[in-house]
C-alpha cells in the first residue's frame, strides 16, 4: 500500500482541494480522501488523469524534424514524398533498433503526461520482407519498450495488404504486408500472445486504410473479426486519397465505410480530415470515435477536421501524436482548438450544453474517448478500482500558484509550458519526478547509440 497527498486533483466537475489517494501493490486505487493522511507522500502538485495517446507510429520518432528541407525550384514537398522518406527508415531498422527508439519515445510520452499509448504498428517483417519466426517479433519489442519505461500499451497490429486502391504493394512497403486475411489473423493471434508478457498491455484490431486493404476484406473483418476489442483505421487523411477512392469505389472513404460497416463505439477513425457534412453527421450519429493528431496533421499539411459540426452532432474524439513531431497533450489540445477558432472566427470550440469550461471539456473528451481506444470504458477521472495514472502539475508555477481552483483547468490547458509539468504517476508508481524519468540517462544513451549506428539523423 502507498498513499500520495496532492494539493488538488481534477475530478469530473473540476478541481477539488487537498486529496489523498491510496493504491495497492498493483497500483490500483483503494481509497480517495479529501485532506492529508499520515504516512502519505506529500506532493505539492495538482493531479490530472494521465492522458491517452490514441495514435502512435513509434519508429517514426527516429525521423522527427528531418523532413523539413525542400529542394528549391522544384515542386513543393507533400505528404506523398514524405511517405517515401518514411519507407526508407522503415526498411532500415532492426528489432533492437525499434525497441531502443520506442523506449526513448515512450519515456518522453510519460514525461509529458501520457500514461497509455495505442501503437498503430505496421513494421512486421524482416528487412527482406519475410516474417520472423515469431510473427509478432517487432510488436513484442514495442511491448518490451513500454514495460521498460512503465507506460500502458495497446498494441494494434495493422493489416496492410495493398499499395493503394487496386494496386499491389511497392518495395518500400514489404515489411508491412499481410497478403491475405488469414495471414493477418495469425499476426493478431501472435500479438495477443506477446501482450501476455506485460500486465499493462492489450491489443486492438487495425486496418491501415481504405487504400491499404481491399474494401470487401475490411467489411469481412469488421463483421466477423473479434468484436470485444477496439478497431482502428486511418481514413480520409489526404485529398488524393478521396479522389482515388471515388475513382475505385465510386464513393468517398468514410461514405463507403458508413454504408458497408456497422460503425459503433469500438471504432476509432484516425484523422478523417476531409469529410462532407453528410459524412460528418453519419459518423457522429454512429457513435464511432475520431482520433485527431493536430501536430502531425499540421506538419503534413493534411487539413483541419470539421470538429465543430462533429461535436454539435454529439461526436467524440481523442488525441494522438502519430509521427511525434509533438509530444505534449496540452499542445495537441491547443493546436486542435485554435485551428477551429481560426476557421470559425469563434472561441467556443471546446464547449457543450453540459460543459462550458474549455479546459475541462478538452481534457475530458481526450481522456474518455482515448480510454475507449485502449478498450477501457472507465468514465470517472479518479475512482476506486482504477489504476492511478496522473500527470502532475507544479503547484508553485506562478500561473498555477495564483489561480483559483475554478480557473486551474483552463490555465493548465491554455497557458502552461512543459516546465510546469512536474511528474507522472503510471499505475501507482511515481516514474517521472522534476521532469525526469527515473531511467532517463540509460534510456537516452541507448537511443543516441542507436541513432548513431543507423546514421539516419546525420
- Bulk shape: globular
**Could you tell me the strand content as a percent range?**
15-25%
Domain module tally: 2
- Give the termini distance in whole angstroms: 48 Å
Spans with pLDDT under 50 lasting ≥5 residues?
none
Q: Percent of residues in helical segments?
A: 25-40%
CATH topology of the largest domain: TIM Barrel
Main beta sheet:
9 strands, mixed
The CATH first-level class of the largest domain comes to Alpha Beta
Second CATH tier, the architecture of the largest domain: Alpha-Beta Barrel
Report the structural category.
Answer: alpha/beta
Mean pLDDT: 96
Mind telling me the C-alpha Rg?
21 Å
Number of helices: 15
Q: Which superfamily, in CATH terms, is the homologous superfamily of the largest domain?
A: Metal-dependent hydrolases
Number of strands: 18
Features:
nine-stranded parallel β-sheet; globular; 458 residues; TIM Barrel; 38% helix; alpha/beta; Urease, subunit C, domain 1; nine-stranded mixed β-sheet; 2 domains; 15 helices
